[in-house]
Amino acid sequence: MAGTSTSTMRNNASASHPSNGAVLDLETRAKKGDHQALRLWLRLLSCTVRIENKIRLRLRREFNTTLPRFDLMAQLERSAGGLRMNELSRRLMVSGGNVTGITDQLEREGLVVRADCPGDRRAFTVKLTDTGLKRFREMAARHEQWIIELLGGLARDEQETMINVLWKLKAHINGAASAALKPNRRSQAGGTR
Amino acid sequence: MAGTSTSTMRNNASASHPSNGAVLDLETRAKKGDHQALRLWLRLLSCTVRIENKIRLRLRREFNTTLPRFDLMAQLERSAGGLRMNELSRRLMVSGGNVTGITDQLEREGLVVRADCPGDRRAFTVKLTDTGLKRFREMAARHEQWIIELLGGLARDEQETMINVLWKLKAHINGAASAALKPNRRSQAGGTR
DNA sequence: CCGAGAAACTTGACATCTAAACTATTTATA
DNA sequence: TATAAATAGTTTAGATGTCAAGTTTCTCGG
């Protein structure tokens, strides 16, 4: 239904060039003489974006939903008691305002609810409804099939290697974070009062 | 100057937990029993998003610009004669309408120009201005430092391994693409008639 | 040469995302 | 216990992104 094509400029990353030889894309930014780290980053980005785009498209086609909504529900399914907004924001690595918006949507669709948080009247606990849980389980099953298919180009041991190296990378990034952000932490509100 | 902090809910993925033991984020979606491919995907996504967020933040802080604008300029710098809009759209893996918007911005800022395309009056050639080139070079230098810093947690040979495995992955994805999209390829305009 | 269809780009409607300001509540502290 | 500061969440403005429809120009078969 969503696939009727009129112009050519759309469909960029998907149907346009199924298996061409001339690969000119994000990675093109990397010159021959560029450093290793930059090449790695661009390749990492390129792969991730491609996979994400495919998942996004399929979620829309088959379940009429979006990736952020799916991700939020996935987090909730993992946490029996539900999660507070700020915890969702942290785990999904998106802004608080964004979580508000996505939660609004899901609540309107009857897939999650905001419940009062005992002991803190500022906060909510967001939970999946029964419908939401059922719906998520359907999607999650398909989703995993897609991932297995898309990453199927790698052998088991290659996947294992990647997992390990990425773990190391993640640890490093978390460390490197604080160093760059230290400067001005103390310029708080209240000055205006 | 953009760094005055008021609320806490921002800065989610960065300053909140510099080096804690409890890592609960996107990857939390993966249960212990989950399959390898899914774990790999979530870890890949998690790392990419973290790095992207940091780069985005720094581009804003130091150069008051954004990632898409930087990416577009990067493509132009690589192509001496400039690039047409549709080529930019393809390489950046975003829609044509999006490229129009980003180009408008950069043109307003005097960093790129649309030049007539000899031989095809439908098309433009987008080029960096002198200012744009100068500005990009400054940003690119910093950008590469950041990448080297952020990926610096990996040894040379680990980086090399990743580059190779990701290359294989990318090739696979490009192939897997067409298979899933085959169904309705020929529902083109004119089909209605 | 003409007309149909394809191609290049723009536009408009709308979803998503960030950053920053704002409200309400809780915590810390003097 | 006042009160300043921190926290939880929402809201707003603006950039980014998609999709689909619209305009102009090309291309090509008859």
Protein architecture, described:
Chain A is mainly alpha-helical. Helix content of chain A is 56%, strand content 5%. Chain A has 6 helices and 2 strands. Chain A has a two-stranded antiparallel ribbon. In chain A, strand 1 and strand 2 form a beta hairpin. In chain A, helix 1 crosses helix 5 and helix 3 packs across helix 4. The longest helix of chain A is centred in the N-terminal third of the chain and has 28 residues. Chains A and B meet through helix 1, helix 2, helix 3, helix 5 and helix 6 of A and helix 1, helix 2, helix 3, helix 5 and helix 6 of B. The structure holds a DNA duplex (30 and 30 nucleotides).
Element layout with pairings:
The structure is a homodimer of 193-residue chains.
Chain A: H1 36-63, H2 67-78, H3 85-92, H4 96-108, E1 112-116, E2 124-128, H5 130-150, H6 156-181
Helix pairs in contact in A: 1-5, 2-5, 3-4
Chain B binds a DNA duplex (30 and 30 nucleotides) through residues 2, 4-10, 56, 60, 66-69, 84-86, 94-102, 105, 117, 120-124, 188-190.
